[in-house]
Amino acid sequence: MKYIIFTIGLLITACNLKEKKEQNSQIDQRPNIVFIMSDDHAYQAISAYNDKLIQTPNIDRIAKEGILFTNATVTNSICAPSRAVILTGKHSHLNGKIDNLSDFDTTNVTFPQLFKQAGYQTAMFGKLHFGNNPKGFDEFKILPGQGDYYNPKFITAKGDTIIQGYVTDIITDLTLDWMEKRRDTSKPFLLMYLHKAPHRNWLPAEKYYKAYTKKTFPLPATLFDDYKTRGASAKTAEMNILKHMYLAYDDKLSLETIKELNIDYTGLHNYPINRMNQEQRASWDAVYGPINEDFKERYSSMNDSMLMVWKYQRYMQDYLGTIASVDDNVGRLLNYLDDNKLSENTMVVYTSDQGFYLGEHGWFDKRFMYDESFKTPLLIKWPNKITPGTTENEMVQNLDFAQTFLDVAGIKAPEDMQGKSLVPLLTGHNEVWDRDALYYHYYEYPAEHAVKRHYGIATKNYKLIHFYYDVDEWELYDRLIDPQELNNVYNDPKYTTVVKEMKEKLKELRKKYKDSDALDNHYIKLYNEQKQEGTKISNREPPSTENIEHS
Ligand code: SGN
Ligand code: CA
To answer: Where is the composition biased (Polar residues) (predicted)?
Structure first.
């Protein structure tokens, strides 16, 4: 009898073990997700979209082996709000992170928390910009606020640390170190690998400032846009390369040069270079010193358009130089996945927190619902699921990411998320994709760059935008015949019916996404209260005065 009971006992244990093992092997098969996001990376500066400015072979590889979205957009073209939309799957007016000024409300449910609960290992490295630490991560090392290019500080769960070197390389080193040493191979993983580059004020690594400061780039057709056909908002925005880009901070002229030339100078000094150690600084000066000398010789003979072109070239040289490092480092990560046989079961996503102006309309920065900042790059590879080399023109948004990743991992998405899983588009089931319009809402005004508050709707054919707060102006663009959005046809009688229909659709969308005039007023009231309390209304960070210990 004893023997029989013992045998039954053994059998039950064996069955349990087998079941556990099967469960484990099922869990093991869930795909890993690597979410790569850079900061302010314009799709115009990825060769898979446009090969006139820079070659990005590693980023392009993601599209070559997967899919390139040509109509990916954001819901609010600014850093922290975009990140909040991505993590919560909700529009800014519902997740509360409407601008860069206030902290993220950590009572929001974010998709990484759901991944962790569902048994994924989770890690985040790089820029978050929330004012507080991320929830739902087994490990994180993040930059404080905007972070620094050289010898950056990182916030970790165990305290702060300064790491010597160049930020883009360091973020990758931290990521690979985690992959190599602390990844739990019994679990699938969610990795958020988030670059600071190519954010202002564009300090490239040595190898790339040496190469890129020698290059000349084609001028955009609208570099000298006079904003004639638009309302007050484009005219009053402070992001014109000629007028609002600083000669020292952005173009890297030294204070000595500016004083010597007697230029009326009110902008910021290029304080981030103060973080460099002696060796880094000497290499920097060896390249930027001669640029200063050259400018001194030419300045007296420059008119405004010559200065505009000079500034545009300086801007592109440094901006694209930082991207060259991002591309190299994306290559390092993709190679690591290959070398460790992880590529097969890993979805890799490359995107940016929004688009950026590379001289179109004479601008730098973002914020507007016009295409260069509304659109964002989106490239995804997922072997055996996505047909390599697919191009997708459907309208998708960063609002869709959370539900997409949850869908890929087989985790149920909360009912109140507002996006749509992209899995049907990834797997070729486009027939079920029925989205015909996108909603957008930007809030950060009055603030740096002076882009007025606006919301709007985009269909494949038209874009209707309403600027409000201290104006009440509407703009309509015919996207098919005017892709550069140079002609506001809102008052053109030919478009009366279009305006009426688009306004109706906009009303429906605002209702669908639970946005309203009452919420607009609520956020204006909040802004005014914060302003009265003296909360900073520009998010420009004070100079990094930290004493860096140089090795
Ligand atoms: C900084 C930059 C701005 C930029 C914002 C927001 N100014 O304030 O040019 O628009 O960040 O960027 S700087 O003088 O401090 O460089 S975001 O990507 O974080 O939204
Ligand atoms: Ca950004």
So the answer is: 535-551
Is residue 489 one of the residues assigned to a domain?
A: yes
The response to whether residue 199 sits with its C-beta less than 6 Å from ligand 1 reads yes
pLDDT exceeds cutoff 50 at 526:
yes
Nearest alpha carbon, ligand 1 atom 20: 79
Shared domain for 349 and 284, answered yes or no, is: no
Which carries the bigger pLDDT value, residue 203 or residue 14?
A: 203
CB atoms within 10 A of CB 355: 26
The residue nearest atom 12 of ligand 1, judged by CA position, is: 79
Q: The domain containing residue 298 runs over which residues?
A: 221-315
Note the Cα 62 to chain centre separation in Å: 17
Q: Which atom of ligand 1 is nearest to the CA of 246?
A: 14
Using the atom order of ligand 1, give the atom closest to the CA of residue 366: 10
pLDDT reported for residue 19: 44
If phi over 0 gives left and psi between -120 and 50 gives alpha, with beta otherwise, what is residue 385?
alpha
Q: What is the pTM of this model?
A: 0.93
Whether residues 469 and 348 fall in one domain: no
**Closest to 80 in 3D by CA, of 105, 100, 108:** 100
**370 and 496 both lie in a single domain:** no
**pLDDT > 90: what percent of the chain?**
87
Atom number in ligand 1 closest to CA 539 = 8
Question: Which ligand minimizes its atom distance to the CA of 86?
Answer: 2
Residue 439 pairs in a beta bridge with: 457
pLDDT of residue 382: 98
Q: How far apart are CA 195 and CA 125, in angstroms?
A: 8
Tell me the ligand closest to 451's alpha carbon.
Answer: 1
Q: Does residue 271 lie in a domain region?
A: yes
